[in-house]
Tyrosine--tRNA ligase (Bilifractor porci), 413 residues
Amino acid sequence: MTLYEELQARGLLAQMTDEKEIAELINNGKATFYIGFDPTADSLHVGHFMALLLMKRLQNAGNRPIALVGGGTAMIGDPSGRSDMRKMMTVDMIDHNVECFRKQMSRFIDFGPGKAQIVNNADWLRDLNFLDFMREIGSQFNVNEMLRARCYVNRMQTGLSFLEFSYMLMQSYDFYRLYQDYGCQMQFGGDDQWSNMLGGINLIRKKLSKDAYALTINLLLKHDGTKMGKTAGGAVWLDPDKYAPYDFYQYWRNVDDADVLKFLRMMTFLPLEQIDEMDKWEGSQLNTAKSILAYELTSLVHGEDEAKKAEAGAKAVFMGSGSLDTVPSVELTAEDFNENDGIDIISLLVKTGQAVSRSEGRRAITKDHSISVGDSKIDDFTFEVKKQDIPKEGLLIKKGKKNIRKVVLGSKG
């Protein structure tokens, strides 16, 4: 099976231009390609992770990835798939996020001379002269065609600013610069990026040559990444300080039955033959498949040691086997308790990070009925946990099936 055939078999490819040329390039390890990452936060998330896995697959076959961080485009904000305008960030915020991305990407992709590269489009976008850019680049775009682009559909209903409207020009210019400066012939992205990607190809061919060798491929995986990786508490981040390895493991351990084999194909490096065998699994065997998925992905993101700890913690909580030491814990001090040596359940949920606010905590208790302390379901938002009721090994606080914390008394508790 060729690499191109494997990507198809794993369900990664949706649509593309120049299929024959794309297959030949990547199968022979001759492609230089890029994927863009706008640094709108200080951590990569699961959607980015899917793109990074694709880069890793292609690099393992000899192809050369370019990770384009959008230090320039992040100052505009991609309108694709959004119903409102993104929050404006300062240059300092963007630059900080870019550095966070650089560090995280290095855990997945092999960067260095002759290998992968990290490129920041701030290098050419931030100092652009507006009039020169409009004359050279803006003149190549037809507004009527742009207004039909899928990336603007949602924003057209609520009001599209000219700032956001210019995003297609900026992303297209990125490909133009990468093609000229780095020999990049290929771009990858999700189906919400298709119009922007075609804009880049058209710009290259108009400015350079109708025969300019610019290819594009559209990936179903990145579109899936926007659908998943979301929880009631926000995004599934790759930074362990923002989303604990145990929670990351639990997220994948609890995917829908219908999705587990799809994710195993798309996101792991397990042989397809092994995954195909799981197609025959039913009932409790699907839970085994989910555990395999959770372990593989946690190991890729956080390392094998953290994957083993998360697996052990899950078994301790749900199967009653092993130690609870690997369950994420939160330490309570004397300041957390009232004069009666108690802490109310809402304050406890905020302390453990299982609720971002008191109102969210109250809703989880009285409306969602998703909170348990130890083995007891809690429906009273005035309930208090007493200091003397917290065992030495800790007390489990559960929010639903996936969000679990252990509270322990600190040395000053």
Notes: The domain at 3-229 is CATH 3.40.50.620 (Rossmann fold).
